[in-house]
Known about the structure:
Blueprint: H1 6-12, H2 16-26, H3 31-38, H4 42-56, H5 61-69, E1 118-120, E2 125-127, H6 133-138, E3 146-150, E4 163-170, E5 176-183, E6 189-196, E7 203-204, E8 206-207, E9 214-221, E10 224-231, E11 234-243, E12 249-256, E13 264-271
Antiparallel strand pairs: 1-2, 3-4, 3-13, 4-5, 5-6, 6-8, 7-9, 9-10, 10-11, 11-12, 12-13
Helix pairs in contact: 2-4, 2-5, 3-4
Amino acid sequence: MAATDPAARAIAVLTEKEMEVLLLLTAGHTIKSIAASLGRSEASINERLRDARRKTGIGSSRELARLVAGQENWPRKTDLTETGNPPLADGKPASAEPHRSKGRIAMSALLPLAAGLLLVSSNSVQQVQTPSPAQSERAGPSPLVGKWSLDTARIPADERPRSVTIAFAVSAARQWTTRVEIVGGDGARQYADSTAATDGVPVPVSGNMTLIDSVSLRQPATNTLVMTLGKGGSPIATRVYTVARDGKTMTETIIWAGQAMPRMETTHFTRVG
């Protein structure tokens, strides 16, 4: 695993005990079964997960587990019996995983064809050809412009941030300015700012979100923005923002890099400005 790999850096700050809990979590076990297996209390296991999220800046335990699982060859434990579909960390069976697709950083359930197909490999996130910025400009002003607030009520309670807002603005030169602000459950604030054209060329991200340092944009339709986030030259995730016809709600679909066949996750925003 390359030292510049953002997942490697995330793993580097985790303790062996935190990694052990994440391994069991990504294998499909519940907090209760993890606690029983390790001879710890459920509160202790939850505290380890909170510490891991705080260290890495990743707001979801499942997102963190999937990120490191795709990069680290952990030995699988066999001391926990699994029958049928193993339960997830929230106690629901694996067949109920669509529940998580409504969770966070946490981001419509299926990508509209207008957004283009996203081809994801373990080393890259690629988009099919999309209309040029000039074509998007001729189509009219984008309903994405404005400020949006995450519907946190749809996020699992143990991963729920206090608030997440995204603000989009477009200059006369068709440069998109994006500001993301996250207030975690513990009150910690994170933010990221960027200004980029919709030409797919990466630009720097400023702020205090340590997991990302670059972003590139594509705009296949006036109501859709495709954003690829990176760290150290490697892709982290691609996020597709799509505004509904009424212009009042927006969905964010997340496709995580580093997995041969990743699940899509969807969160929901409402316009607040």
